[in-house]
Amino acid sequence: MFMYTPSHVGITGNERADELAKSAALDAALPETNYGLSTDWKSIIKSAVINTWQSQWDLNSSHLHRITPSVNQDLHLPPDRRSQVILSRLRLGHTPLTHSYLLNQEDRPLCIFCQQSDLTITHILRDCPALINSRKACQVNCGNYSMLFEDWFKLKSFLRSIKLINNL
Ligand SMILES: [Zn+2]
Predict the structure, then answer these.
(1) 85 CA to middle of ligand 1, Å?
(2) Least C-beta-crowded within 10 Å: which of 139, 141, 145, 152?
(3) Structure confidence by residue, pLDDT tens digits, 25-36
C-alpha cells in the first residue's frame, strides 16, 4: 500500500542532508549560463508550460483532479505536519481507514456510519446520509467539493466530531 506524506521539511536529519547536498552541488556547479531571455519570453514560456500541463491534467478523472481542477492553484496547507499529512491523504482520497483493506487482502469495507456504500473519502466528507447533522454542526460546506479542503479547521473539527481524525 502506498501512502503519500508531504516532504521531509521539519525533520532535522533530513534538512541537514539537504544542506550538505546543496553545498556539494554548489561546489561542483558549472558556470551559470545566461541565454538572455527577457521577462516577456519567460512569461510566454511559463504560460505555455502551464497550458500544456493543464491540458494533460484535464484528461485525468481522479479524486485529486476533482478537488484540484487547476494546476496553477495555490494550496493552503495547515501549519502542523500531522495536519498536512492528513489533508494530503484526504485530497488524494487514500487513507489507512479507506485503503488498509488492500494491504490486508480484504474486500473494500462498507461505510461504518450507514453500512450502505463503500467506505471512501468522498462518501464520508460529502455523501454519507448518516453524517448530515455532523456536517451541519461543524459548518462543513460540501456544496462545492473542492472548497471543502480549503478550510482545514472546519474539516478537522468535523473529522474529530465523527471520531475519525486518528484513522486517517
Ligand atoms: Zn455512509
Answers:
(1) 23
(2) 139
(3) 777 666 666 667
